[in-house]
Write a structure and sequence with these properties.
It is found in: Membrane. This protein has about 450 residues and is mainly alpha-helical. The protein has 16 helices and 9 strands. The strands form 4 sheets. The chain has a 3-stranded antiparallel beta sheet with strand order 1-9-6. A hairpin with a 2-residue loop joins strand 3 and strand 4.
């Protein structure tokens, strides 16, 4: 990135200010508020090259410009508002039921009958089952004792994708001249996308075939997100394949890591866990929660927000400036790629007092004038290019955490030491998290 500050000793200013340039809240706000109608993400040339090579469409994550705006306008009316996704509560709760049963099965395999090893593996399968239930309107069997072969293949493709995530997304494409010498990263990248697209195409085609049969018979066509897209055809079939693929990709590890950190933090802070349980018990009285109930569970919402503040799955965000900007005294020319580090803003004392402390209650408004600044913690992004699947992810997390707290007291296993985060493209636990799930009396 090239920066210049008129009438100033550039080297001195860089030494003094560069470390602050991308993490000060006001600077991040300035960049994001300066976005046009079609904000541009950072470098994703490797994604585009793969799609051009295979003749695939871009999806909402990888598309830019008018193409992106068209897709966004179609999807935002279906999944962007909390009241739109509450309709999925029964489907998600059915997956949560399987999650609870899977917890019981896994802990029964340990000597103490309470420990679940590597909790993220369980939450990964829950997140995949949950988001696929909404996207594909079908169950994949990820929480069964024996996972179906097709789902196993998708899981392998997804793991392969994230194993090469840093080199193929954030660091840009593997240079073409280097690929004959070091072919493995690019081959694995393409292979993982092949697997992801194949999985989506199978499920989309299956639902399309079911719809066509109903149309021939003159039967009423009912369904959810995918059915709507296939019936209205506001997108062509290739665009539907691409968006289903990218939304599933984006909705698995992101949700699973947040659930892993949330339960770990609850286990490390039993007093806070008890406070949240008491709120859940007071509001629900033991009944199964729905999406509508979440509005009356501020500590559950605060738990997810505080977890994402401490451990944002995407610790930074990319933008390409669409106009010349002056930020923090620097002249930023149009077309500059910026990295916005909201991990740093979320840990800034000026934005969040005692930022290292786990305090879900900091997100509860004390009165009508009280607010937590939006740009202090923006794990789902901001504005028109914010995460399209945010409300789906929040529904999955809120319902899962609520039911887990209803059923279990969560404790840290003796096999788990202090868990630190590491970056692997995404911010993830540095070691497996092992937790004890003790039945509530």
């Amino acid at each position: 990135m090239h920066l210049c500050l008129p009438n100033t000793d550039i080297r001195t200013q860089r030494q003094n200010n560069l470390s602050q340039l991308f993490w000060q809240k006001d600077m991040v706000a300035h960049v994001l508020r300066s976005e046009g109608v079609t904000p541009q993400r950072g470098n994703m040339e490797s994604w585009k090259e793969y799609r051009d090579m295979r003749g695939r469409s871009t999806g909402l994550i990888s598309a830019e410009g008018d193409e992106w705006l068209k897709m966004r306008s179609v999807l935002r009316q279906l999944v962007m508002r909390p009241r739109d996704v509450t309709v999925f509560s029964p489907d998600v709760n059915a997956v949560v039921d399987d999650l609870v049963e899977r917890v019981k099965t896994l802990r029964s395999q340990q000597d103490d009958r309470q420990t679940v090893l590597n909790i993220n593996d369980l939450f990964f399968k829950y997140a995949m089952e949950g988001v696929a239930t909404i996207l594909y309107e079908t169950r994949l069997g990820c929480l069964e004792n024996k996972i179906p072969k097709m789902s196993q293949e998708y899981i392998a493709a997804l793991h392969l994708m994230f194993s090469s995530f840093k080199t193929t997304m954030y660091a840009g494409a593997i240079p073409k001249w280097l690929r004959p010498i070091i072919p493995k990263p690019w081959k694995e990248f393409c292979s993982s996308w092949d697997g992801l697209f194949k999985f989506s195409q199978i499920h989309v085609d299956k639902r399309l075939s079911e719809i066509k049969k109903k149309m021939v018979k003159g039967e009423e066509i009912k369904g959810g997100l995918l059915t709507h897209m296939l019936v209205t055809r506001e997108m062509n079939l290739e665009e539907i394949y691409a968006n289903m693929t990218e939304m599933l990709l984006a909705g698995v590890d992101t949700t699973s890591f947040t659930l892993s950190w949330s339960t770990y933090l609850l286990a490390r802070h039993p007093i806070i866990q008890q406070e949240i349980f008491e709120e859940v018990d007071r509001v629900l009285g033991g009944r199964v929660p729905t999406g509508e109930d979440v509005a009356h569970l501020p500590l559950i919402r605060g738990l997810v927000k505080e977890t994402l503040r401490l451990f944002p799955v995407l610790p930074g965000n990319g933008r390409v400036t669409q106009d010349d900007l002056i930020i923090g005294g620097y002249f930023i020319p149009k077309g500059t790629q910026l990295a916005l580090c909201h991990y740093s803003t979320s840990m800034d004392e000026e934005n969040f007092p005692r930022p290292g402390e786990f305090r879900p209650d900091r997100w509860i408004r004390k009165d009508a004038s009280d607010r937590v600044d939006n740009f202090g913690s923006i794990p789902f992004g901001y504005g028109i290019r914010s995460c399209i699947g945010r409300r789906i992810a929040e529904l999955e997390m809120h319902l899962a955490l609520t039911q887990l707290l209803q059923k279990f007291h969560i404790e840290v296993s003796a096999q788990t030491t202090d868990v630190r985060a590491k970056t692997h493209g995404l911010l993830c636990p540095g070691v497996p998290i092992n937790l004890r799930f003790v039945d509530r009396k």
